[in-house]
Design brief:
The protein has 297 residues and is α/β, with parallel strands linked by helices. Helix content is 41%, strand content 23%.
Length: 297
């Protein structure tokens, strides 16, 4: 039994006769008759009652035909899906991301990618930069979107692409004395209540952000520790302190917070795309292409 025999059988049933089926398939009627005879011989019984005009399915044929049709449909789906995965149009893609990207690049990247790859299932995983390497090695994500301040490790089994530098701005309550300024100096933040984030034992991000201020001569007072950036910004909006965020985070963000550039800050954060070094997936490359196209600057 083969797929040609199944296809010929289904065409005969749907066309109403072997002659009409041959016309639809652009083959000789004798070719269809020969394939059906071989199929019936293999099964050990007749599929059609040839004593009737037009031919009718036998009880064996009525059992066999819908299952043959479903098998052909499954084969077609398998063929389309396999070609789709090979070309990067189908499959699934795990994306690990830091939460700050929800304010900036991630929504537009996802929309753009889904326009060209609607059949790829995106598995979005919020995970701090320091945890993304192990997720990549475990195969739980294919791409990590990370944020770093200063130097960071480059393990040989991982590939890092710096997407863009993201200069810092200070997030201030709208009623803060500095909120109306076009820019501030680091020294202006001296003694200011400060909100650090993320609160996680493996992340040095918050301490490095504080170190940037302290090394420049400002000594903000740590007022609160937030687990993630959403909470930190909510605390800012409530008037409980200020914090530093990347400039990309300020775009299209909360209106109850003022985001003011820091004119004399020379250090910025870096947005980095991380993959396995031996990654060859076409879907991964397609997402990276969109990601790099949509980054600022």
């Amino acid at each position: 039994m083969n797929f040609r025999q199944l296809r010929y059988l289904c065409e005969v049933v749907e066309a109403g006769s072997a002659v009409h089926a041959a016309e639809r398939l652009f083959v000789a009627p004798t070719a269809i008759s020969m394939q059906l005879s071989q199929l019936e011989e293999h099964l050990g019984g007749a599929l059609f009652d040839r004593s009737r005009r037009p031919m009718e399915l036998t009880s064996l044929g009525k059992y066999f035909y819908p299952r043959a049709k479903e098998l052909l449909a499954q084969a077609k789906r398998l063929d389309e899906e396999a070609h789709g995965i090979a070309s990067g149009k189908r499959g699934w893609l795990g994306i690990g991301f830091v939460r700050s990207t929800l304010f900036s690049i991630l929504p537009s990247v996802i929309r753009r990618f889904r326009e060209s790859h609607p059949d790829v299932q995106l598995d979005l995983v919020e995970v701090l930069s320091e945890y993304q390497a192990e997720r990549l090695r475990e195969g739980r994500i294919h791409i990590g979107i990370s944020r770093y301040i200063g130097e960071f490790e480059h393990p040989q089994d991982l590939a890092h692409r710096v997407m863009f530098d993201d200069p810092f701005v200070v997030a201030l309550p709208t009623n803060h004395p500095l909120a109306r300024k076009k820019s501030v100096h680091i020294a202006d933040l001296d003694g200011t209540p400060y909100i650090v984030y993320p609160k996680d034992p493996r992340s040095p991000y918050s301490q490095r952000a504080l170190a940037v201020l302290r090394n420049a001569g400002a000594n903000p007072v740590v007022a609160y520790e937030a687990v993630e950036i959403h909470t930190a910004l909510a605390l800012v909006a409530a008037g409980l302190g200020v914090t530093l965020v990347g400039r990309s985070v300020a775009e299209n963000n909360r209106r109850d917070i003022a985001f003011v550039p820091v004119s004399d800050m020379t250090i910025s954060s870096k947005m980095v795309a991380v993959t396995r070094a031996n990654e060859t997936g076409k879907t991964v490359e397609a997402f990276l292409e969109v990601l790099l196209e949509r980054t600022p600057g």
